[in-house]
Amino acid sequence: MNKPFSLSKTERLKSKKTIDTLFQIGEAFFVFPYKVIFRIAPTTLVEASDQGAPLVMGISVPKRIFKRANKRNRIKRLTRETYRINKVALKEALRATNQTLEMMLIYTAQEEIEYATLELKMQKLLQKLQSKVEPKVNNEKI
């Protein structure tokens, strides 16, 4: 049974090779407090390790900003939760266009931000990504 609001192991960006490729050829934009590095590819180009998940995500909180691991882990936990709740529309758009999206979220704020604000920023971020996926659908229909 497929649960739409889960965040399974296959949806997490873990492969060093994939992460290196993402940083080398991926595009980037900024939605405070996140810097987003992403790559959209046709489903056929996906590596065997990531098959089954059209949307793969990783999170990074710099040790330089937050020295204590418990603060970094809390920010990652809150980010994962806001992403998990709001990713459904983007996932559907990717399935409709037969594409995959790999993305890395890098937390850049100097202080911890409350959950409600992070959720609003995550919604904005995911809408921006969805707008980058959907124009390709319009071009294909023309």
Structure description:
The protein is of the alpha+beta class and 142 residues long. The protein has one domain: Ribosomal Protein S5, domain 2. 45% of the residues lie in helices and 20% in strands. It has five helices and four strands. Strand 1 (27-31) and strand 2 form a beta hairpin. It starts with 15 loop residues before the first helix and ends with a helix. The model has no long low-confidence stretch (mean pLDDT 87).
Secondary structure layout plus pairing:
Elements: H1 16-25, E1 27-31, E2 34-42, E3 55-60, H2 69-86, H3 88-97, E4 99-107, H4 115-133, H5 135-141
Parallel strand pairs: 3-4
Antiparallel strand pairs: 1-2, 2-4
Helix pairs in contact: 2-4, 3-4
In a nutshell, what does this entry contain?
By secondary structure, this protein is of the alpha+beta class.
Figure out the total of helices: 5
| Structural domain tally | 1
The strand line-up of the biggest sheet is 1-2-4-3
Number of DSSP strands?
A: 4
Q: What general form does the structure show?
A: globular
Characterize the largest beta sheet: strand count, sense, and whether it forms a barrel: 4 strands, mixed
How does the helix and strand content classify structurally? alpha+beta
Helical amount among residues, as a percent range? Answer: 40-55%
What's the CATH C level? Alpha Beta
Average of per-residue pLDDT values: 87
What is the multimeric organization of the chains shown? Answer: single chain
